[in-house]
Amino acid sequence: MATFLYKLGRLAFRRRHFVALIWVALLTLAGVGAASAPPAGTTSFSIPGTEAQKAFDLLEERFPGAAADGATARVVFKAPDGEKMTDPDNKAAVEKTVADLADGSEVASVADPYRGNAVSQDGTIAYASVKYDVSGMELEDSTKDALEDAAQQARDAGLTVEIGGDALQAVPHTGATEVIGIAVAAVVLVITFGSLVAAGLPLLTALIGVGIGVSSITALASALELGSTTSILAMMIGLAVGIDYALFIVSRYRAELAEGREREEAAGRAVGTAGSAVVFAGLTVVIALVGLAVVNIPMLTKMGIAAAGTVAIAVVIALTMVPALLGYAGRRVKPAGAKGKLLGRGRKSADQATERTEGAQPKANLGTRWARFVVRRPVAVLLLGVVGLGAAAVPAASLELGLPDDGSQPTSTTQRRAYDLLSEGFGPGFNGPLMVVVDAQGSDAPQQVFTDVSDEIKGLDDVMAVTPPQPNKGGDTATITVVPDSKPSSVATEDLVHAIRDAGGDIRADTGAETLVTGSTAMNIDVSQKLNDALLPYLVLVVGLAFLLLIVVFRSILVPLKAALGFLLSVMAALGAVVAVFQWGWLSGLMGVEETGPVMSMMPIFMVGVVFGLAMDYEVFLVTRMREAYVHGEKPDEAVVTGFKHGARVVTAAAVIMMAVFAGFIGSSESMVKMIGFGLAIAVFFDAFVVRMAIVPAVLALLGKRAWWLPKWLDRALPNVDVEGEGLRSLGDDKDEDRELVRT
Q1: Where are the domains of the chain?
Q2: In a 10 Å sphere around its CB, with 0-12 CB exposed, 13-18 middle and 19+ buried, how is residue 717 labelled?
Q3: pLDDT value at 499 more than 50
Q4: Which fold does the domain 72-165 belong to in CATH?
Q5: Residue 183: how many CA atoms within 13 Å on its side-chain side?
Q6: pTM (2 decimals)?
Q7: pLDDT at 575 over 70
Q8: Cα(550)–Cα(559) distance, rounded to whole angstroms?
Q9: 213, 310 in Cβ contact below 8 A?
Q10: Which range (335-344, 595-604, 623-632) has the least confidence?
Q11: Planar angle of CA 113, 122, 83, nearest 5 degrees
Q12: What sign does the CA torsion over 591, 173, 683, 404 have?
């Protein structure tokens, strides 16, 4: 592989005009496709294999049109202090608002609160339900304006009015912190390279890759039903890995220049060595993201595949466009360790770089000094790292999972205030009603079955209200709405869902009728259970495949095993930090978390996938340098120090950049994106600076030569991918000698 990538790097360097033209054309094509594509509609959230999804499908079959995915709104009214909603003036204001809402062009129906028993018992709160013909993302701005104008008229009449539901749903935005994250990345690159040109290359290539990836997702969003969150997550991951991959190749290029090689040769060697690590690091990220398909949640699968596609683009751009841009940059990209402007051209600059490497021994850099410290005290460093991560992981034992609803919105939003008003007037369970679907097809007395199910539910604990059964036109299926006495995310509500399902099992045994529970609350419970059940198989698949890949890369059993165990430590510590901030409220003000609550159900498995891929990035980049030194004859401890000498500075810069990019998404208006941004940023911190920079060298120092042990039969069976670039030693050196003879 190293030889192939070496030739690819040199080709891209020579044919830089052609390579740049291809990527600019792809970016233009993707941009045109995104601009001309129809707007994405609402993403269908289906959970195959769950009872809630089965009930939803039955509703679509037996109640055509009743389960349409049109937007809904609840306009909640509260009377002034000392008044009631039934007072003539207040009632007139509400009826006028309802009449105004019914005039909308996209409005399907409006339920008058006085006719639909939607006034609280104390008479202070009422609500009007509005249904639309299209989804929230497809509503015209004029329709949303009409909804807000009608609410404002009621406010002018003296009422408190708030709007809940998804009618006011907006595309999530990331805020200014995303730009700050990119700015921090730029500063780190400038400090790392000491050159604006060299620092600009990783940023430019990453932005081009993300532009192609996100534009392609936008172009396909409508056809593939990709949600707005998909493109944000692809941008988040694509920016981080795109900058990092280009950073490693540019760093290796500067190191090759410092050894006196010509620029084209240096570009080829950089792609052949660091590029090999980029390929395998990218493969681990792609495996982790595509592996999310095993969960069998279509939305999660699409998010993973879209992000994986962006990572794949970042890898190809790093291997082709980075050497092409290095060709354009010429002498403005200086050899590693060079100060000021390069003097002279051609052989003169190369000779100066060679003199720097052959002269007096320079002072050991910080990475070298740290590695020597760890090698001298491996046990203390190992224990401190493991205990520290274990302490950070403690809050993960209290992890509570759920899906966000209006109750998790900031208190400054009208959706959250409407949620609170409904809880105040109708009870905490009113915002999460359960939909019970009774399928009595084939029963001799379906009406009696519906009544029996309703009576059975009324006798269960934590039930506040049960509506009369509503049969379909065929009379063989009915829906029953159950309002719990507890809030939707509570354990009591989850127990009620299980109790209804248990009672349904008894009814089916007696009558043959099937009772199913659905609704957003039941769907959340089923999603959490499905994700919990899928976590172990997902870990086995992803970690297993990556373990095999790393055996090929490092030609070792213990190094990949150590990498996997270190990942588990970092991901558990990161989950603990997420629980502490988003569930317990620690530092919530600093992170912009206005409302604490359960952690998003998808967070653990999504974090496992992404963090595993990113963790293996640093493992590959750092340990391949150690492997390279060991293969070339250094002792195990010396190889660890050499790996840190050449890789610690770059890996540190890459980690800081990735943390900055991820942290930039904490400013998102979407709670899921905010949580993922924080989780990934803190996970990179734990993995890069605690696991890879402390635990890994400590373990390798303790293992010594055993770290690189591989059974002989397995060594013969494995393909030689030559990540260390061993095949380039004689190839490149011969060409350098030929050029030297020509010059002399």
Answers
A1: 2-36+173-339+370-401+525-725, 72-165, 414-520
A2: exposed
A3: yes
A4: Alpha-Beta Plaits (3.30.70)
A5: 6
A6: 0.77
A7: yes
A8: 8
A9: yes
A10: 335-344
A11: 85
A12: positive
